[in-house]
Protein 1
Amino acid sequence: MKKILRAIITLAVLVAAGAVVIYFKQEKNSAPFTLFGNVDIREVDLGFRVSGKLLHMRFEEGDSVKKGDILALLDDEPYRNQLAVAAARVAQAEAQLQKFESGSRPQEILVAQAKVEEAEAVYNNALREYNRQKALLSTNATSRKSLDLARASHDEAQARLHSARESLALIQEGFRSEDILISRKNLQEAKAQYDVAKTVLDDTVLAAPNDGILITRINEPGTIVGAGAPVYTLSLCDPVYIRAYVAEPDLGKVAPGTKVEITTDSTDTVYSGTIGFISPRAEFTPKNVETADLRTDLVYRLRIVAADSDNGLRQGMPVTIRLAGRQEKP
């Protein structure tokens, strides 16, 4: 009888122990999976692409700005002058091309024809004089020197007539196709230089690339700043990222696209978020991240995108991330 009673008691203890194990196992599986991390808001150093004298800064540290707001201005007078020079070169190149494409004007052709007629008259007169001197020399009525002078005048007049006729032919034919092509390329170059000058002038205006809060005002009006030198530091309002870490045994509980809840120690507000990135490379747990495991354990970095942060999540703020743990298969 005692043996039967002991067996019954032992069986009851085993059943109770099993029930307790199953209960806590189910509680563990159904409990929210928790991670710890920090807010990682992106910051942008804002500066001009050109150098110059800082003329005006419109915002102070801590001011909220919208995308497209004008933050600062450079003295643009030197760049406006460069743009004016570029515009003049474009006009000059356009006029030159129009001249080449239009060809010679009627008045220029008439002038060239008049020069040909004048050269013909001079040549005819020189030819008559040369023939007269040859006839006189045959009767010894003139000297050899006079004949030589007449021949030289004849040759000179003939050369000038030939030059005048060639000039007329060139004017009537117009400009060469190669000259027109070169003129077109010169116009393209002038327009490209104008576009460069226009871009440089536009770069004297510094605009906010996105909504955010100015956390640093680095320079003041009157400062000569170099190209690329930062004058403001902008903390972006959107997107807001959370940097967290998950241990290798828990890696299967998270996946890109998983919805999470984000809380802070400062308020009771619960923010929603989505896991957007899981690092493919393991690393040691950073010292500024609190986890239940040893800090020397290897972990994987997560990037969580927070939605509707309403400025409640600030740079470096520690946060708690919760997501439902995946149920184990029986």
Protein 2
Amino acid sequence: MTKRERIAEVAKDQGLDGILLTSGSLRYYAAGSSAEGMVLIAAGGGGYALTDSRYFEALEQTAGPLGFSVVLLRKNLIDSLGDLCARLGIKRLGYEDDTIRLKEYRRLQTGLSCELVPAGEALCTLRQVKSEEEILLIIAAQEIAERAFDDLLSEIRPGRTERELAAFLDYRMASYGSQGRAFPTILISGQNTSKPHGEPGDKALKTGEFITVDFGARVDGYRSDMTRTVALGQIGEEMEKVYGTVLKAQLAGIAALDVQKTGAEVHEAASRVIREAGYGDYFGHGLGHSLGVDIHERPTASPASEARFCAGNVLTVEPGIYLPGRFGVRIEDMIFLSDRGKRNLTKTPKALLRL
């Protein structure tokens, strides 16, 4: 079943005549392009991509082979959408209530004669289970990221700046076929590693520091995500202890992750290790998240997550310890859950690397 057909099934299950896709992520997911416009999928299975002359030819090449009719706008988008809904007999139209902007919603509300029905939760649930094709794209992105990381290691030395090394990593991913970063690359060092989402700056690397690298590549719209923390030269005893604790916590989280486990249970397995080592106050974020077309998707592993994992989920497992003003450590892998068990999609070693 194609993604278009799966969305049509969601429409039927929700008692809708069709579903309107407005976010770039879902338009890419369904029609292979996030080009400006909207995508309408009827409950009967028909798909329509509405766009203007700037993107018409490109959409015909991407969405056309996926069974979509590409509609060239002859007037404004809302009026054209209204005409299409009237022609298709759409009375109840699902929309992405979890991502749509208020201004855009009001335009739909005033410009369409059909009833607008929230469908964001059902669409989110649909995307949680990845197909074999989607998994292969995530793996391809991960392989690119790991090749680039291998190249980066030989460039890390005292005096190089965070910003130039982040740019080098991004360039190497692009040279290996990445279609852009999965998200803005995090490459930070020394005291900056205590910031979970620190930004690369002009700080020069020094001997005796940690360097944390959190990054990913993108292939055909699908993203990878990994984090490694390495040491530049010899490091102190507590740095060694913190690294070992984070690694132990990550392995505990991976071991706990399984079908039918809740996100809260998996998070607790890793968090417990960090608490027992005396660093419980310094791990403040969730253990992991799903990913695909978006870098953060559901399900997640966090203290508040009661959703149960199932076959087809891809989760990151990324515990960390962050000592403000001193240093931090994070280690992250991607884990795929299947009917045959779990598979770690991240191959780069995790033993502490000293450069």
Protein 3
Amino acid sequence: MPPWASTRLRRLALALLAAVAASLVLTTGAMAGAITPESGGSPNANDIASIYRIAGYIAIFVFLAVEIALIYSLFRFAYRRGRVAAQIRGNTSLEIGWTVAAALILVVLTIITFAKLSGIKAPPATGGVTPASAAAGQLRRPLPAGGQRLHVDVNGQQYVWRYTYPNGAYAYEEMVVPVNTTVLLDIRAQDVIHSWWIPKLGGKFDAVPGYVNRTWFRASRPAVYRGQCAELCGRNHANMVALVKAVPQAQYQRWIQRQKQTIDAANRATAAQAQPPSSTPGGGG
């Protein structure tokens, strides 16, 4: 290969590496928290991120321990002129030790995961109140702490999310919720499989036609949380964004009442237009 071709290949490889690095840096939504999932928006998201961090710290410790031992062995027992390397056939104590250590790591990770799993799946109960939906094998829905909860139906359709509230009001694309209130979500789809994912508010849940997935979140402060459909659902999939706007309780009450009034007024206007014109009786000749 001529020198100019080799130089060109190196430049192309460096440009490709830079492009990949830039795409990883710029696609923050897809990377979530880069190393761990995003958190800070809801207690269940915080628990998910903490499990990732604990597992990551243990993995880093194991990696460093193995690499340090490997580098030490490479230098300590390297071949030298006039010296015969030690012939080691096995070390029973060492082999038992690292087997037990690996088992202990798995046990610790399992205990931590199951300890946090109940808090991830369902909000904390108040007074041990558990509805009948738990007995049906669905997501356990105890009364959240403080008794404040809001039930929202999330319906995925090509290519927008529809949110339906208990009073019959609904909205598209942006879900408005009060802060410090546990929001219970019923996630479904009416056409193809979608996926509801607001990274800072918890895990990803598929929206499947004919099936209901359930999750929850509780925003502790006013903010706008952004997400997107995370399942390829058609050619306009990239446009299927999802927003959750957490606002103070009073502001939410004003919004939900205004939204309901606007929808009712629109329904009345549509019904009036659909009425056939009344016939006027003609006069006799």
